[in-house]
Amino acid sequence: MSNDAATATTAAVDGTGTGPEQPTAPGHGLGASLRPADARAKTEGTFPYASDLWAEGLLWAAVLRSPHASARILSIDTSAAAEMPGVRAVVTHADVPGDAAHGRGVADRPVFAADVVRHHGEPIAAVAADHPDTARLAAAAIAVEYELLEPVTDPEKAFAAEPLHPDGNLIRHIPLQYGDPDVTGEVVVEGLYRIGRQDPAPIGAEAGLAVPRPDGGVEIYTASTDPHADRDLAAACFGLDPERVKVVVTGVPGATGDREDSGFQLPLGLLALRTGCPVKLTATREESFLGHAHRHPTLLRYRHHADAEGRLVKVEAQILLDAGAYAEASSESLAAAVAFACGPYVVPHAFVEGWAVRTNNPPSGHVRGEGAMQVCAAYEGQMDKLAAKLGLDPAELRLRNVLATGDLLPTGQTVTCPAPVAELLTAVRDFPLPTLPKDDPEDDWLLPGGPEGAGEPGAVRRGVGYALGMVHMLGAEGTDEVSTATVKVQDGVATVICAAVDTGQGFTTLARQIVQETLGIEEVHVAPVDTDQPPAGPASHGRHTWVSGGAVERAAKMVRTQLLQPLAHKFGMSTELLQIADGKITSYDGVLSTTVTEAMDGKELWATAQCRPHPTEPLDETGQGDAFVGLAFCAIRAVVDVDIELGSVRVVELAVAQDVGRVLNPGQLAARIEAGVTQGVGAALTENLRTARGLIRHPDLTGYALPTALDAPDIRIVKLVEERDVVAPFGAKAASAVPVVTSPAAVASAVRAATGRPVNRLPIRPQAAVVVAAAGA
Description:
Elements: H1 3-12, H2 39-44, E1 59-65, E2 71-77, H3 79-82, E3 87-91, E4 101-102, E5 109-110, E6 116-117, E7 123-129, H4 132-141, E8 143-148, E9 170-178, E10 187-195, E11 207-212, E12 218-222, H5 227-238, E13 245-249, H6 265-275, E14 279-282, H7 285-291, E15 298-306, E16 312-324, H8 330-339, E17 349-358, H9 372-390, H10 394-399, H11 421-430, E18 460-476, E19 483-490, E20 493-498, H12 507-519, E21 524-526, H13 543-571, E22 578-581, E23 584-587, E24 593-595, H14 596-600, E25 605-611, E26 628-643, E27 649-659, H15 666-685, E28 691-692, E29 695-696, E30 714-721, H16 737-755, E31 761-762, H17 772-776
Parallel strand pairs: 1-14, 10-31, 12-13, 16-17, 20-21, 27-30
Antiparallel strand pairs: 1-7, 2-6, 2-8, 3-7, 4-5, 9-17, 10-15, 11-12, 11-14, 15-16, 18-26, 19-20, 19-25, 22-23, 23-24, 26-27, 28-29
Domain Aldehyde oxidase/xanthine dehydrogenase a/b hammerhead: 44-150
Region (Disordered): 1-38
Organism: Streptomyces noboritoensis
């Protein structure tokens, strides 16, 4: 981010966006840009990740994966592998003592393929050996005889295809019906949109270590984002009681859903139990691409009806999610896609049908903004079409239709949380545009395609586009959201015990800030996470800021009461008349003044608390129901330069205004927004995990183009709206998913403005942005 953007970020906290830099926040507590405790270790390369782990007597694991997308397994011969020197164990489906299948919500995914292979890269067998090279050679020596089957790779054909699974090919169907189906508008626009397969592409590939226990159980050390769910899945697979399986969370090198695949952990545990030795597995980048879940490729058909002034009358849509071989999180993703199919707009009548189907493509699952990102690209494409047909400014058309607090979603749920959508859009619309580069060969400015690109300045066109996005927070449709935390204080030092995993969203830093704010203690430590602690749930949808942060706050307040009650009783006043700040306790009238350490008098104080938000309900047979705890919104204005001869696109600037509820850590919040926007730019322009007949092409970081620092545009955080959600702890909202959802649609909108082309596919292919060649033809 440029210096100007950093200034805008700082100033945005007070809503100015362009004003002078604000006074420095306090060094600790809520509202401070507290540095993460592990920042130095990560910077110096001493932070322990799963791939760094070691144990005495360590064995190495390797997994044999299917080279086919669809095949019948006729035989598996492991004899050659088992006889190799240094090989200690070989396991297949026949060696799974417990449940042969696993999965989140639907247990339809086998630990090892037994009779059929349903996707490229599906695990067939695993090997443990005394050297990693030996393990890989042994895995390659396993002879598997396949009968190749015709893969089902087109989700539209999955409805009529032979069932790929005993449960059939249809995972879920949601026919949302809201309003009068016979209503029509004076102006109608239609569109067909396709969203590609985005990979989470973690910086560090999956790795883990399994260590057998004396009681016949096993401990698994891995970068889990939901350790208790992983423990329960593993225990069921191993045929053990959950108390005999322990998951210890190691350093997580970033996660946007990709750490939820248990397929890396289960073979490890089986091999450790079989050999009685610690076993380590470090995935190659190719294995990482083959094994974990990706964003759902999606096909969307839309028809928007509006009146002559551009106000929406009805939205009709069909949404088809390609779930790949197994159900994973497809049901939840489909619910989000259908519920948010109309976007943050008031739509009196909506009829949306959504399907999630199995295919022989790579598995799809949780990736930031799942479901919401795909529909955002489509409904914003429709809004651009509608603006063009009516001759209206795209921002003005959107302003005439924006959602506000008290409006209804097409699911029938009332928006009770703050929904400052108009304010967000106005902020990015009114923010000054970047200056235009001079059409001068000697002027040093970036052309689309990079500094060494072949483009000419005369072929470059600038476009400005807008997008509004929304996401839900926490789980949905009746998910029981709960987290537990313990806060202990002794000798002036506080410790937080909570099984909430910091996946890069900054929970450990937030937990420290909450305790600092509540107890006035600057030195706060957060204990490492394992399954001996009470569960805190998965790290997704901003859960830990809300439920785990809420649990930490409640526990800290209980400790505060324990600390202050004796003093209040001694001085004949209530605890509400005492305050704690900077390690000191003072009364409102100044009579009492002491330090926290003196008040503790060597005692240890502790408390455990839970946080559980209000319940939700599943969508019914017509897509109606109060399915979401809370919503977050974002507006982005994109400015792009497009070489209309080559079709190359350069994102010049993205102006962001976001509904955050409350800024808890300004530096951390800015980083999360910037990261989300950049991930969205990748989805818009470069990231597409391509397949041919179900086989992943080029499963590496050469064939899969991630945006680098050179590709990241200037990101201007022009406004952060701090309208607190009264039902959320601290009033804060999830921050990182909604810019991922919104930025691809904004980039596509800007490319449409620059080229006049429809741009109905993400990522945007060069041929979709070429104008001159098409005109010449």
